[in-house]
Amino acid sequence: MEIDFLQYQVRNGDTLTSIASRLGMTGEELKLFHNSHCEKMDRVWFENLNKVKTIFVPIHHKTEAQKDQERKNTLPSQFSPSFFATTYTVYESFESPFETPVNIGYTIDLNLHKERKTGQYIVSYVQKDFTSDGNAPDDKVSSLSIACMKSIMPLEFIMNEKGNITGFADHKKITDTFIHQRKDLEEFYVGEVSQNYMNIFERNIKDESFLLQQFQSTLLFQTLFPGIDWFQKKAKWKEPFYFLQNSFPVQCEINIEQENEDENAVSTILNGKIRELCTSQEILRGIKLKEKTSEPASGNIVLEYTTNIKNKNLLQAKASVSLSHEGVLIHQHHINITQG
Questions:
Q1: For the chain, how many structural domains are there in total?
Q2: Position 152 pLDDT exceeds 90
Q3: 304 in the same domain as 196
Q4: What is the structure's pLDDT at 1?
Q5: Region 109-128: what's the mean pLDDT?
Q6: According to a count of CB atoms within 10 Å of the terminal CB, is the N or C end of the chain lower?
Q7: C-alpha span between 60 and 78 (Å, rounded)
Q8: Sign of CA dihedral 135, 129, 93, 151
Q9: What is the secondary structure of 194-230 as a DSSP string?
Q10: CA–CA separation, 161 and 116 (whole Å)
Q11: What's the whole-number average pLDDT of the chain?
Q12: Could you tell me if 167 and 271 lie in one domain?
């Protein structure tokens, strides 16, 4: 067993504080350390060390500042393209007492670079290989939906210095691409239902703000593109999150904790609780009412990130969202994002 302490011979004039200060500790910290290692009868309680012969002191004591710096060094502190891998596998599950559980899977390809002229980060995003309950979707509506999305891939997003998606690199390119690809889609997907779906899809992607929110409000984007400053926070803070796609962001109080997974990775866990006066029905409908509510929504969001200690690469991200009404769970959503 590794010994992490030694016995210090007390000299005339020594006090808890004078010994502790040479170790970068407080007198209280030294007292607690000694008392946790010595026999019960040898515990010390006072600043003055008269009649005390030895004190147990730590060999490798680290100050709070040193611990804080070590923690910062193991976590992402600034955004860089190396934060992301090129490919992630995603699994999502949706549960509700009103609907049949849904399980989907897909793959994401990312290509991130910084433009020399503008200094902006541009992330190229491709979503592909969809499955539902482990099988490729075989119904016509799902197939058409996937085909429409596939036709405008890759999408290029602007990303700020914090790692947040802020807009599209070229929104017009998205609409022009779909209009061009639609001719091929119409040859395969015929009929009034298909035409109506493609009309709605085209109208929606032409609305830049709406289209951007379609992505930003997903649990996928909120989890996959975290704020880099999250990893360096220590105290509680408030952060808005979408509990449902196409709803509105809800203010949550966030607690954070970090722990070493092993010598190569560290886990960062964010636990959030709704702290905004809105009802679960408002969140489900995506509409805030002016009247104050006496039954505020109860909801939690948990995000867990595993990052490489050396290169700060995102190895895995998991998230869970739950929404309750009067103690009854009405919506639950899980997502698991892993490299490769």
A1: 3
A2: yes
A3: no
A4: 44
A5: 92
A6: N
A7: 29
A8: negative
A9: HHHHHHHHHHHHH-HHHHHHHHHTSHHHHHHS--GGG
A10: 15
A11: 91
A12: no
The tokens for 87 are: 């490919």
Structural domain boundaries enclosing 35: 5-61
* Position 192 in a domain: yes
Same domain, 206 and 232: no
pLDDT for residue 293: 63
Average pLDDT in the 271-286 region?
91
**103 domain residue, yes or no:** no
In this prediction the pTM is: 0.79
293 in the same domain as 326? yes
Tokens matching residue 250: 């809800």
CATH number, position 40: 3.10.350.10
Contacts of 73 (CB under 8 A, 6+ apart): none
Q: Would you give the distance in Å from CA 189 to the centre of its chain?
A: 38
102 in any annotated domain = no
pLDDT over 90 (residue 99): no
Measure the N-to-C terminal CA separation of the chain; round to a whole number of Å: 39
Does 251 lie in the same domain as 136? no
Find out whether 293 and 277 touch, Cβ atoms under 8 Å: yes
